[in-house]
Design a protein that fits this description.
37% of the residues lie in helices and 18% in strands. It contains 11 helices and 11 strands. Helix 6 packs across helix 11. It is globular. The model has no long low-confidence stretch (mean pLDDT 93).
Length: 319
C-alpha cells in the first residue's frame, strides 16, 4: 500500500495530463461535476458523486457507432455508487452482448466519499461509500494526502512508472483511513435513519403491490429524467443510415418504449411504466445479472419533475 501527498497528487495529475484525458469531480455551487482537467486547474478528490453519472464516459447518450480516435482516458475520483453501476453495465454490454463499442480502456482511479448529498442512500442497500475492488487505483483521504490501494495490474504498473510521486504507507495511515471511513458511513447511516432495506420484501412487494406505485406515481410525467441520470440504466435504440449507425439513449418511462408491431403496448399506462422501473432494478437485474439495478446514488430524486422521492418508495415497499 502506498501514500501520496496533496502536492504530489497535483504534480502526478499534471504529468499524466500530458498523455491522458483526465476527468475529475469539480465542485460547482453545491454539486460536483465531471470535468476535464486542464493545465489551469488543480485536481481535488474531496466530496461525493457527481451530478451526471460516470457511465457517460463509457456509453454516450448519443453517438455514431464508428471507429474513433480516442485519447487514453483516466477518471480520477470516481465514487463507489458509479463504479457499482459500471460493473452492472459491463455484465450487460461486455459479457452478455459483447458490444464492440463499449469502452473498456478507461483507467479508474476511484476515491472514498468524504461527504454525501442529501439524496444519497447507498447504506440503505447495505453498501459502503467506498470501494474494496473494481478499480485500478483507489485514493482514501488521510492527513495531508491519500492512502493508495492497488486494484489491478494496470494500477500496479502506474505505481511503478510514476514511483517518484508515491511513498510507503504506514500502519498508522491505514488506521486513520479506517476511522475516516467509519465516520462518514455512520453519518450517512444517521442521515438515512439507520435503516437497511429488506431487499426480499421489496422484490415481493414490487411483484404484488400496486397501490404504492399508484400513490407515488400519480405525479410522474414520463419525462425520463430518472433513467437519464441513473448509473445503471442502459436501454437504447439504433438509427441506421447509408454508412453508419447512431445509438441513442431510450427510456422505459416513454409511452412508446414497449410498443410492438401492430400497435400493441403492454405498458401503455403510466403507472405500469413507473412500476416497471422498480421491477427492472430489484427483480430483472438480480435475476439476469445477479446484481441490483440500483446503487443508492439518489440522482433520480434530485431530477424528478414530479417530485417523487425514490428512497421513500423503496422504504414503503420494504415495510
Amino acid at each position: 500500500m502506498k501514500k501520496i501527498t496533496n502536492r504530489n497528487l497535483k504534480n502526478f495529475a499534471k504529468k499524466l495530463n500530458a498523455n491522458y484525458e483526465i476527468f475529475y469531480p469539480q465542485k460547482l455551487a453545491e454539486q460536483f461535476v465531471l470535468t476535464k482537467l486542464d493545465s489551469e486547474k488543480e485536481i481535488s478528490l474531496e466530496g461525493y458523486r457527481t451530478l451526471i453519472p460516470l457511465k457517460y464516459i463509457f456509453y454516450s447518450p448519443q453517438e455514431n457507432l464508428i471507429e474513433k480516435d480516442r485519447k487514453p482516458t483516466i477518471v480520477f475520483g470516481a465514487r463507489a455508487c458509479d463504479i457499482r453501476g459500471l460493473n452492472l453495465l459491463k455484465k450487460i454490454y461486455l459479457e452478455d452482448t459483447q458490444d464492440p463499442y463499449y469502452r473498456d480502456d478507461v483507467l479508474i482511479f476511484s476515491a472514498d466519499c468524504t461527504s454525501f448529498h442529501s439524496s444519497c442512500f447507498c447504506t440503505l442497500l447495505g453498501d459502503n461509500p467506498w470501494l474494496d475492488n473494481s478499480f485500478d487505483l483507489n485514493f482514501s483521504p488521510i492527513e495531508n494526502g491519500y492512502l493508495v490501494d492497488i486494484g489491478s495490474k494496470r494500477g500496479e504498473k502506474f505505481l511503478l512508472d510514476y514511483a517518484e510521486f508515491f511513498e510507503e504507507a504506514k500502519v498508522s495511515h491505514e488506521k486513520e483511513r479506517e476511522l475516516k471511513r467509519t465516520k462518514i458511513k455512520e453519518q450517512l447511516k444517521n442521515h438515512n435513519e439507520n435503516k437497511t432495506l429488506n431487499l426480499e420484501k421489496i422484490k415481493k412487494a414490487t411483484k404484488e403491490n400496486k397501490s404504492i406505485f399508484e400513490e407515488y406515481g400519480r405525479t410522474c410525467v414520463s419525462c425520463s429524467s430518472c433513467t437519464n441520470v441513473c448509473p445503471t440504466c442502459f436501454c437504447f435504440f439504433l438509427s441506421e443510415g447509408d454508412k453508419n449507425k447512431a445509438r441513442y439513449m431510450d427510456s422505459c418511462q416513454f409511452k412508446g418504449f414497449a410498443r410492438v408491431a401492430g400497435g400493441a403496448n403492454p405498458r401503455e399506462e403510466l403507472i405500469t411504466r413507473f412500476k416497471n422501473r422498480f421491477n427492472c432494478k430489484f427483480i430483472y437485474r438480480p435475476e439476469a445479472q445477479e446484481s441490483l439495478g440500483c446503487t443508492g446514488c439518489g440522482r433520480c430524486i434530485d431530477v424528478c419533475q414530479g417530485k417523487i422521492n425514490y428512497k421513500e418508495v423503496l422504504i414503503k415497499l420494504g415495510e
